[in-house]
Design brief:
It is a single chain. The protein has three helices and two strands. It is an alpha+beta fold and about 90 residues long. A two-stranded parallel sheet has the order 1-2. The protein is about 35% helix and about 10% strand. The protein is elongated.
Length: about 90
Amino acid sequence: MFLNLVNEQYKDCILIIQLDQAGTHKAKRLQMPSNIILMFQPSHALETNPIERVWQHLKFGLRWQLPKHLDELRLLIRLSDGTPFCKRYL
């Protein structure tokens, strides 16, 4: 498990790991090492989660589009005027 590996590497440190609100980051049975603190950022927070800016630009650039398959979506993203900010993430 990732957290156990991090814990072994930094045994003598207190670690704060910032996470988004994804359901996969909130397992109820997760056993946390005592030196690791999880800090969850607010959901859809543009100021703390840069990927939210990417989604905002993508949604704006692709509004009113209804791609039927993934290749068509990729083409629309490349042709969209609203997505130059996002191209480095694609």
